[in-house]
From TrEMBL:
<keyword id="KW-0805">Transcription regulation</keyword>
<dbReference type="InterPro" id="IPR028978">
    <property type="entry name" value="Chorismate_lyase_/UTRA_dom_sf"/>
</dbReference>
<keyword id="KW-0804">Transcription</keyword>
<dbReference type="InterPro" id="IPR012770">
    <property type="entry name" value="TreR"/>
</dbReference>
<keyword id="KW-0238">DNA-binding</keyword>
<dbReference type="GO" id="GO:0003700">
    <property type="term" value="F:DNA-binding transcription factor activity"/>
</dbReference>
<feature type="domain" description="HTH gntR-type">
    <location>
        <begin position="4"/>
        <end position="72"/>
    </location>
</feature>
<dbReference type="GO" id="GO:0045892">
    <property type="term" value="P:negative regulation of DNA-templated transcription"/>
</dbReference>
<dbReference type="InterPro" id="IPR036388">
    <property type="entry name" value="WH-like_DNA-bd_sf"/>
</dbReference>
<dbReference type="InterPro" id="IPR000524">
    <property type="entry name" value="Tscrpt_reg_HTH_GntR"/>
</dbReference>
<dbReference type="InterPro" id="IPR011663">
    <property type="entry name" value="UTRA"/>
</dbReference>
<dbReference type="GO" id="GO:0003677">
    <property type="term" value="F:DNA binding"/>
</dbReference>
<dbReference type="InterPro" id="IPR050679">
    <property type="entry name" value="Bact_HTH_transcr_reg"/>
</dbReference>
<dbReference type="Pfam" id="PF07702">
    <property type="entry name" value="UTRA"/>
</dbReference>
<dbReference type="Pfam" id="PF00392">
    <property type="entry name" value="GntR"/>
</dbReference>
<protein>
    <recommendedName>
        <fullName>Trehalose operon repressor</fullName>
    </recommendedName>
</protein>
<dbReference type="InterPro" id="IPR036390">
    <property type="entry name" value="WH_DNA-bd_sf"/>
</dbReference>
Length: 242
């Protein structure tokens, strides 16, 4: 398992304190100086941890006052970010169970989500099921191109796919595009997710890219409608500062 950085340890500890109402919405976190004392670290490390909490929408920096805890619901699905479920749950102080149903070598499709990819590439095909409250809730089907991901194991998928790709393989994952629809799904998927007779699910199709703009991953995510919810937190970039 990758060793956590001091920044990650601090961020996750504060997240837990927010989650269990030690820091409530409307409260200010201790000052940066006090946090440095509490965690025995530098101000730069504390600021990086606070920046992570800011990006998650959990706090807002108020000039002259400090870091205000926001009254923002936790995401159910990380719809805007490029992050694995395992990493997202870890950031939110939650746990998840993942079952790998299939890991095999296949050729990627030439079209995906209405897009012509202009090629078929040797890939790993990964199918994994995520449980929420012991209910099968999210089924992911992924193609990972072997030119970027030469090897992958079930343990890599379960422990954290993106941590493996970034920390072990050294990939620089940059951005993804996502399309969300509601569709009637095939019988097999309906059975896996234990859907009702109408067999409808939320479907998210993602195309993920490296920082050199290479497409390396195709993901189709099927989600139970009764478990699918997202709240999009977005910070506006001030054009005058760019």
């Amino acid at each position: 398992m990758p060793v956590q950085s001091k920044k990650e340890i601090i961020a996750q500890d504060i997240i837990q304190k927010i989650r269990f109402a030690q820091y409530k919405p409307g409260d200010y976190l201790p000052s940066e100086h006090r946090l440095c004392e509490l965690y025995g670290t530098s101000r730069e490390t504390v600021r990086k941890a606070l920046a992570q909490l800011t990006s998650l929408g959990l706090i807002q920096k108020i000039r002259g006052k400090g870091s205000l805890v926001l009254d923002v619901q936790n995401f159910t699905f990380p719809i805007s970010g490029v992050v694995s479920f395992k990493d997202f749950d870890k950031q939110q102080g939650k746990s998840s169970d993942i079952e790998v149903l299939n890991l095999s070598e296949r050729t990627s499709p030439s079209t995906f989500g209405g897009h012509n990819l202009n090629r078929r590439a040797p890939s790993y095909y990964v199918e994994h099921l995520r449980y929420i409250d012991n209910i099968p809730s999210v089924l992911n089907q992924e193609f990972l191109f072997k030119e970027a991901v030469p090897i992958i194991t079930k343990a890599d998928v379960i422990n954290s796919l993106y941590s493996y790709l970034e920390r072990t393989l050294g990939l620089n994952i940059s951005y993804s595009t996502k399309e969300i629809t509601v569709e009637r799904v095939p019988e097999r998927i309906a059975k896996i997710l234990k859907l009702t007779d109408d067999h409808y699910a939320a479907v998210i199709r993602s195309m993920s890219y490296l920082d050199d703009t290479r497409l390396f991953q195709l993901t189709t995510s099927y989600q139970r409608p009764d478990k699918f919810k997202f709240i999009d937190f977005e910070r506006r970039k001030n054009a005058a500062r760019s």
